[in-house]
Amino acid sequence: AFEELFAQTFSKKQNFTFLGHIQTCYRQKRWHDLLRLMQHVYKSAVNKDGKESETGLLIKEKWEAFGLRLNHAQQQMKMTENTLLFAFVEGTLVQAVKKGEWILLDEINLAAPEILECLSGLLEGSSGSLVLLDRGDTEPLVRHPDFHLFACMNPATDVGKRNLPPGIRNRFTELYVEELESKEDLQVLIVDYLKGLSANKNTVQGIINFYTALRKESGTKLVDGTGHRPHYSLRTLCRALRFAASNPCGNIQRSLYE
């Protein structure tokens, strides 16, 4: 609209450099400079002496209407200087898809249904991808050939846990991993947690014996303060080891005892 009015009022040939500067400001998104230049031309056009012909009056009315739009744009610019502006920021998953990185989605079965629905397109074989509808995209992202998606979940046996919808679950190659029970595996785990305490072999073996005995007794004899059978799992052991590793008592044996 500005360029059209400008051509009707001034010589484009004589102001070729100026119009080029207007285009540069627009391409570089220098909105303050652009509006200031337009405001300068608007004032010159309105105050320009010319024949009071019908054409001249019509052009002047167009400039005045343009001036209202220009003032409105300047007010919007001032308002945005003191307020928050929101922009779409690509998340970790989108970046992984584009760059060909590997990503792990933990506790995937606890995700909201709409999130899982978005993932379904990504799991449609090697050609699957995402469409960022929130950003207004209509075309899917270009998926890197090295992109890999992994997901973890616990069986839906605990309170609050649920299974994945079959349509999503069937698109994964599923591996079921049993809880660690062998003494060799437990030894590696315990040594890693207590590496800062330099625990000896007898201490580690004692923890293994105590843990396995607790697991066994919890199913037959032990009860908690409410009269229910306690549940001891690998998570219970890891939490206890993390506490002991901080050595709050200043003594390895006492911290393990606590």
Describe this structure in words.
The protein is mainly α and 258 residues long. Helix content is 52%, strand content 3%. Strands 1-2 form a two-stranded parallel ribbon. Strand 1 (102-105), helix 6 and strand 2 form a beta-alpha-beta unit. The longest helix has 28 residues, at 54-81. It is elongated. It starts with a helix and ends with a helix. The model has no long low-confidence stretch (mean pLDDT 86).
In short:
The protein has helices at residues 2-9, 16-27, 31-47, 54-81, 92-99, 113-122, 166-169, 183-193, 201-218, 234-245, 252-257, and strands at 102-105, 148-151. By secondary structure, it is mainly alpha-helical.
Task: Please estimate the helix content.
Answer: 40-55%
Termini gap: 78 Å
SSE class: mainly alpha
Mean pLDDT equals 86
Major sheet details: 2 strands, parallel
Counting DSSP H or I runs of 4 or more residues, the number of helices is 11
Oligomer: single chain
Would you list the SSEs in sequence order as H and E?
HHHHHEHEHHHHH
Rg (C-alpha, Å): 35 Å
**Outline, from the CA principal axes?**
elongated
Contiguous runs where pLDDT drops below 50 for at least 5 residues? none
**How many beta strands in the DSSP annotation?**
2
* Biggest sheet strand line-up: 1-2
Strand content: under 5%
